[in-house]
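Readers outside the structure-tokenisation community will struggle with the description of the input data as it stands. I therefore recommend that a typical entry be quoted early in the introduction. An entry of this sort, consisting of the sequence and the corresponding backbone structure tokens, reads as follows:
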Amino acid sequence: MSQRKRLSNTQISSQSKRQSGGSVAQEENDDTTFTQPSTSQVQRGMQKLTPAQVDQKTAEVVQYFLVKDQKKIPVRRADLVKHVVKEYRTIYPEIMKRASRTFDQVFGLKMIEIDAKNHMYILINKLEPGDGASPIKSPTNPKMGLLFVILSVIFMKGGVVRENLIWNTLNKLRVDPGEKHEEFGDVKKVVTDEFVRQRYLEYVRIPHTEPVEHEFRWGQRADVEVSKTKILEFMGQLHEQDPQSWSQQYREAHSVSGSTQPGSSR
């Protein structure tokens, strides 16, 4: 009897794990099960709702984006549909169109998709000059200044740098990644966790290294938000050199793809 009971408990436990694993998998697959509604589906969905209901849901989406944007966290379509749009998913394209118009007309922001594969969106300041200039081109707070320095080093070194070069650069600026900084707190965590989550940086393990080493690249947000021409101007002032003396970087910064296309620094 006790053996049967133990067996039963084991079966229940494994079943529970399978169910738990299933729910995790379901959560990961949320976006793959969401199909963008067709124009006719949207039209039928709109007929079932009042203008006030659509306006309310649009306002909720706008609020969700603004809260995420405070911490510069990209919005994933799967999360948006699951947590905000919910039962209004049949009119998702219409809600997004109205939200985009609200950001444009009310907040002076532009909603763009930075990751077409995983459907991730960010807000950028559309009131900046049209050359792709960045909200952080003249850093207004120390953390953005730290990020600007790191992005500058990566760009000037060809788009990819080993992490020890970044830490050495910061050490020269009297910012020690191993110590708590009065402005940034845990510097290494800010750089390898916060900036990575915000998609300003990519922090990638280098294969077959022992001890383990990582390298930094520009992230998807940096590609669309940060002006490479501004970085060159900054470096020119810093070193008292003509920006054109860095010929490769100058060409990249002034090419159309170099200043406006995601992934250009790869």
Notes: The mean pLDDT is 79. DSSP finds 13 helices and eight strands in the chain. The longest strand covers residues 109-115. Residues 137 and 230 are 6 Å apart (CA to CA).
